[in-house]
Amino acid sequence: MRFCRDNETVVTVIVGKQTISQSAPVAAVPPGSTERDLRLDLFRGVALWLIFLDHIPQNVVNWFTIRNYGFSDATEIFIFISGYTAAFVYGRAMRERGIVIASARVLRRAWQIYVAHIFLFTIFMAEIAYVAATFDNPLYAEEMNILNFLKQPDVTIFQALLLKFKPVNMDVLPLYIVLLLFFPPMLWVLLRQPAFALAGSALVYVLAWNFDWNLPAYPNGVWFFNPFAWQLLFVFGAWCALGGAQRLSGLLRSRIVLSVAVAYLIFAFAITLTWYVEPLARFVPGWLSAWMYPIDKTNLDVLRFAHFLALAAVTVRFVPRDWPALRSPFLAPAIRCGQHSLEIFCLGVFLAFAGQFIISEWSGGPLIQVIISVIGILIMIAVANLISWYKRMEGRGPTARVKPPDADLAGGDV
Amino acid sequence: MRLAAAVLATLAPLAAGLTALAAAAPPEQCEVPQSLLDTGTDLSRVQNAYKTNHRIAITVIGSGSSGLNGPDGAHAAYPARLEDVLKQQLPGAVIKVIAHVQSKETTAAMVTAMDKILADDKPTLVIWQAGTVDALDGVEPDDFRDSLNSGMEKIQAAGADVILVNMQFSPHTESMLNISAYADVMRAIAEQHGAPLFDRLAIMHYWSDNGAFDLYAATKKYDMARRVHNCIGWALASQIVNAAHLDATRIQTTQ
Asked: Is the ipTM of this complex over 0.90?
C-alpha cells in the first residue's frame, strides 16, 4: 500500500491493482484507507436500529430517533452509506476484475435483496391474513378496508413481485434494488469522470422534480421513495467513497462550513419542535412555512438532503476515522449490525412487524413498547454477532485477513 | 325566616346552575389533556356568529369514520353527539350540525362535492374529516395536499371557519396503513390556513394509552364505538368552545 502526497490538489490515484491511494494536503493520511472505515459500520448500524424503532408506529421510544430532531432521518444515513460501501467494494472489483464481473456481482446483490424483500412480503401477508380472520370492530369499519386486497390475491401477489405493491415500511429495499440495477454503468462513469457522474446524478434529481418522474405503484400512486430523487444520495455516497471525501476534506475543515452546518441543524431542530409542540407553530412566519412546506420525503426534499449534509459534516468533524472509541466494546454492537446490513435490515423489518403484532394483541402500553424496542435491538445485535461468528468460522469474514475481499464480502457487507 | 328565604332565593339559581354544569360535564372516560386540543388558532367567525346572532351552523364533511353503522348509528356518531353537547353548553343558542358522511370518499371527491354543500348549508364552521380513505387508496401525498389546499380555500372563501379532523388511531391496521405521511400533510395544511387541527389520532391514542378505551379489542358490538364517538363529540365541542372563546362570550352575554 502506498500513499501519494500532493500539496496543491487532492488526488486519487490507482496504484497497481490493489489500492486507491488517497492524500490530503494538510492532515495526515488516514491509516489504512483500504481497511473498513468503522464509522460507516457504526452509523449504518445505528441507522438500522433507528429504522427498526421508527417502523413500530407510535412507539414511545421513537422520541429518541433523529427524525424528531431535524428534517432528515435514518433512511438518508442508510442510503448514503450503502452508496459509499457499494462504490468501495464494487469499485475495487471493477478495477481489478473488469466491468463484467463487477456488474455481475452488483446484480447478484440486487437479486439477493429482491429475494429478501419477497420473503418479508410473505410474512406481511401472513400477518394481514391473520388480522383479517380474527379482528373485527365496528369502530374501524372503514380502516378494515385495507384488508380488501386479500380478496384478489392473484393481482396483489403479482404486483408485489413486480415491486409495485409495497406494504407499509417495505419501501426501502425496492429502492435499494433499483439503485443497484442502475449502479454498474454509474460506477463505470464514477471511476472515470467522478465529477461528471455526480453532475449527471444531480441533473436526474432536478429533472425528476421538474417533470414529476417516479415509478408507478399499485393500487395507485407512485413509489414512496422516488428512485430518481434518492439516487442522488446513493451516488453522492459512492462519489465520496471514490475520492470525493478527500476532495471535500478541506471544505469540511473550514470553520465557516462548520458554523453554517451547526446553524442549519439548530434551525431544523427549532422547526421540528413546532411540529410537536403545537403552540410554538405560531412563531414560524407565514412566508417561511409557505416556502418551506411541504418537506417532501418521497422526492428527497432539498431541505432533507441539506440536513443530512450538515449532519454528516458535523459528524465527520467530531468523529475522526481513527477515533479510539470505535474499537471500544460499547460501540461494537452497533458496528456489528452495520457490517451485516442487509440481514439486519430485514430482521429489523420483521421484528417491527412482530413487535407491532405483539403490541396489538396484548394492548401495549408504553412499558411494553419500551420492552419490545429493547428486545428487538438485542436480537439484532445477537444475530449480527452470530453472522460474524459464522463468517469467521468460514474464514471469510471482514476480520479475516487471509483472503482478499471477494464476492462474498461484497455480497455480505454492502 | 325571611333570611332563610333570601338565602334560598340566592342559592336556587346557583344550584340550578350547578346541576346544569353537572349535566354539561363529559363522562370521565372522555378526558383529554388541554394541550391536545389547544392549537393556538382562533375560530373568529364562529365567535362572531355566536356573539351577534347566537347561531352556529356546523357542517361536517367526512368519510366512513365520521359515521357509525348499527342501530341509530347516525345519532350515536360524533357529529350528532357534538350537536347535543354544544346545545347543552351554549344554552339559548341555535346550534345546527349537518353531517355529509360518505364512506370510501377520497379528499379529492369531497372537494368536488363541497361547492354544493357550502352553498346549501351556509355553515359558520366546517369540520372536515379526511385522510383515511386517501391512505387506504394510496393517493399520492402531493395530490392529497393539493386537494386539501383547494378545499380549505373554498371553505374559507365561503366565509366559514374550518377544523381539520385527522384519522382514527387504529392499532390493528397501523402497521398496514401508512397514515403518518397523510397526518403530517394535514397538520401542515391546517397550520398554513390558520385552522385548528382536531388531532383525533393523538387523542384516541391518549385514550388507548391511559386505558379509557381498549382499542385493541375485537368485538362485533357497537357499545365501544358509540362511546368513542360520544367522547369525540365532547372533545370537539371543547375545542370549538375554546378556539372561538365562547366561554368568555357566554359570560358576557348572560351578565
From this structure: no
